[in-house]
Specification:
homodimer, Cobalt-precorrin-4 Transmethylase, domain 1, Methyltransferase, Cobalt-precorrin-4 Transmethylase, Domain 2, 2 domains, 5-stranded mixed sheet, 12 strands, 17% strand, globular
């Protein structure tokens, strides 16, 4: 049996009793460390506190390991009980569908133990969950990479005096900018998940043919807003602007979580501290939502 | 201090360790019984199992009590620690923003302890959470009440040969039908939450001036699909139809949860058993999503 156990959002005490019982019953315990990172996963004594509470030795499974050794983990799970611990919910912001699909193909039984994830805990800011549109991810821009929607490509071609061949599809435009704009038109809130770069091979090392890793990077709310405003400035479609209302949330579910509501301009100057950060762009609001936002507003 | 503690989706063992510690430290413990109902809340020994595990006497707070006695609960919380237990996540499908707003106005400190809710656990069916559009609620139709969007009103007026005065607003149409249609156009999945009627005063009793309550009713997936198809037939805009792909989920997070993927027509004949039920109307899919749906498909 493979148990996929959600750990929730805070520390080792956010596991459920059902989850803890499952972990205690397992012969081998892995923790995924590649889609998200917990303070207790990162801090020096985090893993040992977890091992102490759960009464188990825990193997850290990074992205490479899960991709390369999934079959090994699943072979174990076909012989005895294995727990695979996941930050948040197993099917939260990043799904572990691939592992489940592989398990089912090998006829390994899977049991999922749910927990809180950013996708529901975001409700704490007072904006109702069913009034959110599609969620977007904001990636780090680099010197050589900028967002790349068809709109931006057409604009770039035009500026360069080039022709543009448009292939028509039934799928909709898919950049974060267009999703935010669409949500705005519908009066919906937008949850922006901010980039996390952990164990990324450095470009330099890829060129040299051996793997060295960049230090971990977490996008701050400030960087996200800077980038969002940069895109708005270059496109000028007014999906949002300096005065658009937002809520910035840092370390959601942790003891020291921080929630601040304000305009993009106002939030640019707020120090939200340690990761993880996320951002909500506010759509149309209900009076009760307004009252909640009021509590988190910059006075 | 007022602790608002999410209980998750299964039984009493789905509370988190953080949540359990909070409950144990409280002098008084309430459980809300009006937005959703747990099997363990409904079953005869459910509450006593919970009381035994948590080591506390638990007071059931129905809708009336929370609305009428909120100030009493908050006055207690200003003097000693009170826990308010909530099925799922405190800010899941139904938010408890109103209680939080009242608490903040009375300067009562509030601590939220998150857990899984339908809004993230729905990910278990394999459709990625960030590819969902707006969530909809499907209400029970009655003899005298049918869905009531502007579209339907215009159509009805037209059928009756009446003029229609249209007042223009910036807000978007708001019936579940239009939301499903909009999500479909965007290629997004739609989560349909199905009606729960608990402790509804009967119309008869309201007329007589004293409160008697209807027996609890939970909408099944079958009823939801029947109603959806009825609306589609009367509107004929082809937001969906008999052949639209759906996933039906019953008792999500429980030991005996049931997940079946198929067309609306196919799901009409499936017996999903005891409540709670919910339904997903599938949008455009990714290959990994397809593989997961395959496992849940009617063969």
């Amino acid at each position: 049996m493979l148990y996929i156990v959600g750990l929730g959002l805070g520390d080792e005490r956010d596991i459920t009793i059902r989850g803890l019982e499952a972990v205690k019953s397992c012969k081998k315990v892995y923790i995924e460390a590649y889609t998200s990172l917990l303070s207790f996963g990162l801090s020096s004594d985090g893993l040992s506190r977890m091992e102490k509470l759960y009464g188990k030795t825990i193997t850290i499974a990074d992205r490479e390991m899960v991709e390369e050794k999934a079959d090994e983990i699943l072979t174990e799970a076909s012989k005895f009980d294995v727990a695979f611990l996941v930050v948040g919910d197993p099917f939260g912001a990043t799904t572990h569908s691939d592992l489940v699909v592989r398990a089912k193909k090998l006829s390994v039984e899977v049991k999922v133990i749910h927990n809180a994830s950013i996708m529901n805990a975001i409700g704490v800011c007072g904006l109702q969950l069913y009034r959110y549109g599609e969620t977007v991810s904001i990636p780090f821009f680099t010197e050589t990479w900028r967002p790349d929607s068809f709109y931006e490509k057409i604009q770039r071609n035009k500026e360069l005096g080039l022709h543009t061949l448009c292939l028509l599809e039934t799928w909709r435009p898919d950049s974060f900018y267009e999703k935010i704009q669409r949500n705005k038109e519908l009066g919906l809130h937008t949850l922006c998940l901010l980039d996390i770069r952990v164990k990324e091979p450095s470009i330099e090392s890829l060129c040299r043919g051996r793997k060295c890793f960049e230090p971990p990077r977490f996008m701050t709310i400030n960087t996200a807003i800077e980038q969002l405003l940069e895109v708005e400035e270059s496109l000028g479609v007014s999906a949002y602007g300096e005065n658009s209302r937002c809520v910035g949330l840092a370390r959601l579910g942790y003891e020291d979580q921080m929630i601040v509501a304000g305009s993009m301009k106002e939030l640019l100057d707020v120090d939200f501290g340690a990761p993880l950060h996320c951002l909500v762009i506010v759509g149309n609001t209900h009076p009760v939502e307004e009252e909640m936002l009021e509590f988190y507003s910059i006075k």
